[in-house]
Amino acid sequence: xxxxxxxxxxxxxxxxDPRHIEAYIRLEHSTxxxxxxxxxxREVRLAALxxxxxxxxxxxxxxxxFGLEKSNYWDEKRKDRREEFLExxxxxxxxxxxxxxPS
Length: 103
Known about the structure:
mainly alpha
C-alpha cells in the first residue's frame, strides 16, 4: 500500500519497509503533513531505530494496526543489498543517537 509518504521514506531509509517506518511515526503523529522536512527526516531515523529494536515482526504488527497493507516492497536487488543497508543504517543511527553513554 502506497501512501503520500512512501517515496520520501524510501529515500531516507532504503533498507526498511516504508510501512514499518510510517507506522512507528504514526504512533506519535496522527498526520505527518505538519512536519517540516527536518522533522520528518528525524522521525524516519527514530522509526528506523524502533524497527531495529523491536524487530520486523513487531513492526509488521504495528503497520497492520494502522491498516497499512503488506506489499512486495523488496525487489530482488534490494534483497541482495538489504544487509548492507541495515549495517549502514545501524552505524549512522548509532552516531546520531548513541546508545552507550561515555564513562
